[in-house]
């Protein structure tokens, strides 16, 4: 059986988790704390998008 290459799902989940964490728990903190969290969430989600679009369809 062929192994599926869905590593982009992990990056998407991590990115969305960081985004929700930043919105819910870092609301009152300084900008230099929240912006890196949002930037990391954006980068992880972008990496997931790149991996999802660059993977060749199986079939």
TrEMBL record:
Organism: Halosolutus amylolyticus
Keywords: Membrane, Transmembrane, Transmembrane helix
Bilayer-crossing regions: 7-26, 32-50
Protein name (Swiss-Prot/TrEMBL): NADH dehydrogenase subunit 6
């Amino acid at each position: 059986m062929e192994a599926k290459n869905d590593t982009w799902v992990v990056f998407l989940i991590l990115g969305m988790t960081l985004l929700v964490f930043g919105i819910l728990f870092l609301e009152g903190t300084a900008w230099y704390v929240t912006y890196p969290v949002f930037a990391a969430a954006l980068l992880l989600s972008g990496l997931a998008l790149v991996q999802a679009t660059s993977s060749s369809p199986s079939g």
